[in-house]
Amino acid sequence: MRFSDDPSAFAHPAVNLGLLMHQLASELWPIARSITGPGVRKTLEILKQEIPELCLQSIPSGTRCFDWTVPDEWSIADAFIEDEAGDRIVDFRNNNLHVVGYSVPADEWLDLEELQSHLHSLRDQPHAIPYVTSYYSRRWGFCITEAQRQSLKRGRYHAVIRSELKPGVLNYGEVILAGETDQEVLLSTYICHPSMANNELSGPVVTAAITSWLKSLVNRKFTYRIVFVPETIGSIVYLSLHLSQMKSKTVAGYVVTCIGDDRTYSFLPSRAGNSLADLAATHVLSHLAPGYRKYSFLDRGSDERQYCSPGVDLPVASVMRSKYGEYPEYHTSLDDLNLVTPTGLAGGFLAYKHILECIEGNCYPRVTVLCEPQLGKRGLYPTLSTKQSGKDVRAMTNLIAYCDGSLSLLEIAERIGQPMWELLPMVERLSEFSLLEKKSS
Predict the structure, then answer these.
(1) CA within 13 Å, CB half, 344
(2) Which phi and psi angles does 355 have, rounded to 5°?
(3) Of 23, 78, 234, 382, which is most buried with the most CB atoms under 10 A?
(4) Phi, psi torsion values for 316, nearest 5 degrees
(5) What are phi and psi of 46, to 5 degrees?
(6) What are phi and psi of 374, to 5 degrees?
(7) Is pLDDT at 383 greater than 80 in this prediction?
(8) What is the pLDDT of residues 197-253, one digit of tens each?
């Protein structure tokens, strides 16, 4: 268990934790994942080594989930294209993006013109293998670079896909970390893409690290519902099983995806746009990455589509590094472990750590004395005046000035322009001297 073995990593995420997360991503990288099948199970088994509390669930093919039905299970053993000399010119074992996801079995000799109808490439990215799927229509196909496609010579080609599509199960993983209350924070990430790093692996590895950090907390106010699901169909399945409880208890939630590169930070709001999840995320990003990119809910594209859909109405947002669909390597073989870096993953972890610290520590503080409390006699006022000590005192007195019980700590932090996670130790010290009382609402 990488993260549990090195708890000091949480204190220095840029130094240690990023490397540990990148190691986990490297271990998960070669697995051929899809929305069902052995790749999903193997991924969940590795994640369970990091999170022993992870419960693995199986939902049979054919199960109705709202307007959807769990599809047949897909597995693949091998796939290739050979030329007439028997040389493999495309090999699934070299890159699992080479096969269209959910391809039916094939074993055919075709001339080049016939083969072209089963090939997918990107003209504007000639050296990238595209990621293509066909979950709900039966077909087969291969994905190659445009450069290779243009180099193919006339002749006969042997296309073979050794796959299987039959009734089975859809798998997902779930962790419930109990807190002092039964009010819940949802963290959801997906485990259904093959070898892509930012769009796929960054989400599960950062979520695994966040889960380990949450487990290390002595006290947790909220209960955490943490799920590793296949994208779209997985969240729909999960909601169909747990919606009633989630609607009544979820106070905030996030889809954790695309959280591993070094380029930027991005924010996609919930459909409501003003939930606790939105306020905590924008507060953290305004201090951690003031130049972050803010998107509209109209730019949605991941499982927030399901969690925020009408009738479900959960307060679920998403904090990302480079957003899905907005970086050139998205859904191609160029989204690799060079694009996702230890420092990028550490930055993603830190953003979510601060967000959850804000949600955990949010309260309605009220000062218990009239006029300003005398800080010096309690050791809360520095005896040596420096530039930094002056800033700290100013932050504490500004905090106290707004502690009338009507504003949340998050609202106060916004009003006085201070990161809330830096105010939390001040609130605790003032509470220890009975100068503040913390109300829940």
Answers:
(1) 26
(2) -60, -45
(3) 234
(4) -115, 125
(5) -70, -40
(6) -80, 105
(7) no
(8) 999 999 999 999 999 999 999 899 999 999 999 999 999 999 999 999 999 999 999
- Angle between helix axes 387-401 and 409-416 (nearest 10 degrees) is 130
Q: Please return the burial class of 52, using the count of CB atoms within 10 Å of its CB with bins 0-12, 13-18 and 19+.
A: exposed
C-alpha 241, offset from chain centre: 21
Spatial separation of the C-alpha atoms in residues 37 and 33, rounded to whole Å: 7
3-class SS of residue 148: helix
Q: What is the pLDDT of residues 105-116, one digit of tens each?
A: 999 999 999 999
Q: Residue 296: which residues within 8 A CB-CB, separation 6 or more?
A: 268, 269
The contacts of residue 246 (CB under 8 Å, 6+ apart) are 184, 186, 225, 239, 314
Q: Crossing angle for the helix pair 202-216 and 18-28, nearest 10 degrees?
A: 130
SS percent in the chain: helix, strand, coil, step 5: 40, 20, 40
Helix boundaries (H) for 187-268: 202-216, 233-249
pLDDT at position 167 over 70: yes
Which H/E stretch holds residue 180? none
The CA distance from 122 to 145, in Å, is 7
> Tell me, what's the pLDDT at 337?
98
| Contact between residue 224 and residue 214 where contact means Cβ atoms under 8 Å apart | yes
